[in-house]
Queue: 2 jobs
Job 1
Amino acid sequence: MIELTIISGKGGTGKTSVVGSLAALAKNKVLVDCDVDAADLHLILGNNVKKSADFKGGHRASINEELCTGCGICLDYCRFDSIKEVINESTGWVDKFRIDQLSCEGCGVCTQFCPENAIDFDEIVSGQWFLSETKYGPLVHARLGIAQANSGKLVSLLRTKARNLADENRWDLVLIDGPPGIGCPVIASVTGASYVLIVTEPSLSAFHDLKRIMQLMDHFKMPYGLCINMFDINRQITAGIEHFARQNNIEVLGKIPYDVAVTKAQVAGTTIIDYTDNSVSDHIRLLWNNLETELNSYINKQRSKVHENRNTFG
Amino acid sequence: MKISVASGKGGTGKTTIATSLAVVLADENINTTYLDCDVEEPNGHIFLNPEIERNINVDVSIPEVDLEKCTFCGECSQSCQYNAIAVLSNKVMIFPSLCHSCGGCFHICPEKAIKEIPRTIGVINAGIGHNVTFYDGNLNIGEALSPPVTRQLKKIVSESDVIIIDAPPGTSCPVIEAVNNTDYVILVTEPTPFGLNDLKLAVEMVRELKLPFGVVINRCDVGDESVENYCRSCKVEVLLKIPFSRKIAEAYSRGKLPVEINGDYRANIYKLFENIKNEVGYDRIDNNQR
């Protein structure tokens, strides 16, 4: 099975529009939206939610005010400034504490050291995940609760669900729309994936962010290629990105021109491929052809590895 | 006064608005500090072009086990919520990138065999650009947890009258860390289905945090009316609408701010600040500076 993850470093370079179009072109696959903070892929694929379930990603501490004696030991242990004073209205003194749920990191240290055992440590629901049916196949997506942590865990859960689904259907492609940035949810979206496509654009900001995300790919030894979106907005920087890619032996697999049709397709709630048959969709088809070649060479490499191992171990 | 600039969706123009605001205020002789809290992908330096004067390492603490004292009882590993420490029969394994530096293992160890040692996860650059006092946080490549970098960045004591905080995209913990304890949040969006969906999430977030906020609609003429309709029906204030301009987009791509090439844009950004100032009830600048 192949897991293809699309990321960008910088947000707003067109990841989701590209993934939507690839979804229209690729056959027999499961789609995953790993941007669990702000999932958008369902908006252009049409989502008919078939199944939804709670995501329990961790614990939160909460002080039972009846048992709290106000000793303040928890205050000494908490490193996240989450223990807040409760002022007794009649006396005006601080005689109890409470926990700020937004800043609580769920480490549980306060619960272990409270002499009165007054701090509960319950597993909390920190989001929902969904299985939807779209016109281009099943989509696994999620919504992390506002201000919740553990986005990486949720991303891993989505990928596992998608792989299982692909296995059940004997499909060999999982197409993953990743989040922006280089941190926790991005790492969870790419680790163990077969191939990564980075969507960038020709601006100094995107180029700067591209270099950082390429370093991240090298750090994890991931195979990857590039797509330059809106390449004609600044041809000089596009040339700079291409030069940089060549220096690093990275393929530019596609270049997509700027076109208002991209926004119009989104407003119409559909993919670029469905919306228009002009040069933008041709460029995306070309990108998909190049990607397929990369993915096939990946499959062949995997096969020859299995073959080698067989030869070695007899 | 602390103003944060955030958005659910990436690439809507947070950094353009934040750095434009900083430059316009500095040009009006208002003492201004800019903090780039998008520590995974900081871009503010491209527009403010600061001369970096100092680098400050961001360290977190991780456990180190003294194997002479360790009895391999496993209490540290049981108490760790992040699976950052594992105890085998004669060995303790530590996974630094999973550690949240809560100090649980250090406190719980009955043999006092654990001490905490510093580990660098990022760096803060400090300098001055366009007369703006500049700081940005940079998470090291391969690190998963960005909030400690933002936390340290926000601890910087600034003498400035206005502090502008450029937040990362999204609505989860790194964003909360950036916008929390600010006096006003500017949410930047664009009038598309993605922009609307992510704006709704961002509005939910700032309402949960009980922070005053308003919306800037960038490239306001490229999509549809749904963002404006939403703002009207949900009583969300639209502070400013900025039309798409290929000239601005091209200038942006070269690291040039729209306020440097367009006088109207500059006037609008200043008006945006005046609006926020009135809403927050901030008058110190009038009394002391101008």
Note: Confidence is low (pLDDT under 50) at residues 285-290 of chain B.
Job 2
Amino acid sequence: MLKDYLQVRTLSIVFIGDFNPVIIQPFWLAGKKLIKEQEAQDTTVELIHNELVKYDLGWVSVEITKKRFELRTSKEPYFEPLRDLMLSVFFILSETPIEAMGINHIMHFSLPDEEKLYEFGNKLAPLNIWEGFINNPRVLSFEMYEKERKDKLPGFVRIKVQPSDQAIRFGLQININDHYALSTNENGRKGEMVKRLKENWNNSYKRADEIVDELWKKIWQL
Amino acid sequence: MDFDKPTDAIAEITVIGTGGGYGESCVIHLGLQKWVVVDSCIDPISKNSLPLQYLEDMGVNIDSDVVLILCTHWHDDHILGISQILEKCSQSKFSFAKANDKTKFLRMVANDYEKSFKGTTNSSTKEFNKCLEILEDRKSNPIMSYPDRILFSVNINGFMNQVFSLSPSDTAIHNFDLEISTIITEFGKSNRRIVPLSPNFNSVALFLKLGHHRAMLGGDLEVSTSDNTIGWDDVVNNSQSIDQRSSFFKIPHHGSVNAYHEKLWDKILSERIKAGLTPFNIGSKLPTSEMIEIYKNKSEELYITSALGKNRRPKKRGKAINKMIQDFKIDLEEIPFQFGIIRARINMNEANSDWSIECFGTAVKL
Amino acid sequence: MKINTDVTCNWILEEDFTKMSENKEVKQSFLKNLDNEISEKVKEFENFNLQLAYGEFLTRGLGTISDNNLKKEIDLQNLPFYFPQQLNAKRISASLNHTQNTQRWIGYVVSKTDQKFKAKLEDISNPGTFEIGVFDIKDDAPDEQELIQVGAVFYLSVGYDVSRGTNVKQKLIRFQRLSEWTENDFNHVMDRADRIASNLQWE
């Protein structure tokens, strides 16, 4: 299974809405008991500005603009704590308008050899179509879009496949953007997206695994 | 496992066990294809409800023939999968132990349910909440269990076959109302799961009238050392519905010493009683060997859904992970899943007939 | 946090910036330019990614203020979405801290003594049967003691932590931290309970 080749798994949860970046600083989080005091002390701050706040707590990276709030980690033990942190911040800031959410699963795999990497791209997008007028064609990025979610919630799923941008031998990267939007009778001011995250976290994670497994199976059946 | 359906005149009590970690359940045939399910348990891999699977394997028409689903106590992991059963059994009534303060009880349950999506809720609360939602959708009121309440009644060949609840007693119901406040205070925080605080005097025990015969299901009801108006003392001293000695008994609370009532065995249960029980394997192991000896002496035949014997072991995992667990000296033991069924059947129309008991899966006669 | 605060400009800066120049006007002009630059970059990024909640960080590293150069080198990407170059390893981040071969559980405390706590564990990595674990409070969760109560939920994991290219075996216990119930939460709970109470009669 493709999971057997997994090297790095990154989780990123993004809210799109209206935020005040400077509020959510490490000592604010510690004050609300959402992180340890020591973590606030040891934070590596890159920037705190009223347009952009970016810092690293050691186990999660935080990046906030006025329109976008993202938590990200590549440390699997912290996937649920990341979710807890996201939920808790927006339980506290319950009046924050949030209009969309992305639960992003970014996986980097190390395939056994260069040939397998080449074949993967070739089966996704047959290279013989490009031969003749392009010299030595390779797939650099391949993206699919699920227009209507399987669970019938407003939103979509985007899956991008590309060579890995990490130092991984014969690395393959699959980004699954599990995107949730508001329905027509929602205005984003009643915690709708927080509820979506609460209710869909498990399914999103499972679905990402299923997508990756299915892709692998189908590729090698071709 | 292959199961045949009993004929209309054959009563059945089937005890389903999972080895002591994934719930337990009883399935009862009252006759004329009227079925009752008491509690639920799941296969931890597939998450399927085992009593539901048992009924489906037999070919029971679950949509119409399951008439009652009983939750003997909501806060224990004895009801995993119960909402699956209620969902499929559209004609079934749902019963649980009475709470006097309905609103306070529902608020406690709703409070715990609110935590469910953060992984903090007790899984039983989640199940219970789902059941409430199903009932709400169906506009079907739940039936409260309390002493000597007829939960279901059906006339079969001139016999009134009935299911009675024997507990919880009035005192236990009153005490539970007080306990709710404590539960909310102790476990109301968003990152705390409810862990049962006290011995179980709220569990529903049942008395079954099956034609010529009687049976009792003990639930998880225990014996109080200080108050004879709760637990088995109340049943033994005050029950009005017990009109005859029972010839089959599902032993309560995994055969623990806390659930053993001498007078119950001597005065209420038949001398030729056949009994079944399920083990417990989280924390303490039940039944103890001492209690097994007591039950063996008191009953003609004794069965258990899976034998306790081997110590719990670490779960099987890949070498690298196992080595890491060992290197870090993490003390882990798996709660094994052991699927066992004790099936007891009797001809309701024949006064002299006896229970015929079969074991399936890991169930054994002791 | 390894920073100094310049209150007037609402910045939190690297320490060595304060040594950059004694001239207040130079500093302020520099900061204003930086301010504008950041606002522009953020706008560009948001235009691209706003609808997509896409998991791409705006920044790949902000660099540091150089003592010799008044113009801060900020490595902000024009677009976060770029074609990776398999053969060009320069972009590769050896500092992507991550974990490998992780086994994870979620557990809750079922009993506790002064020294130890016992927990029921659900395997998140390979869901199935439960496990019972016994943990030493001082050794396993020394800085979580006030959170260790019966019913408390925690996350357990073992695996390899890869930081700055170094693999280290790691065991982690982290107790769940959630916000306290808000008034909204309580209202929601009450509403739900009251709704069910009015729709269902106890028979």
Note: The helical segments of chain A are 26-31, 37-41, 79-92, 114-124, 192-221.
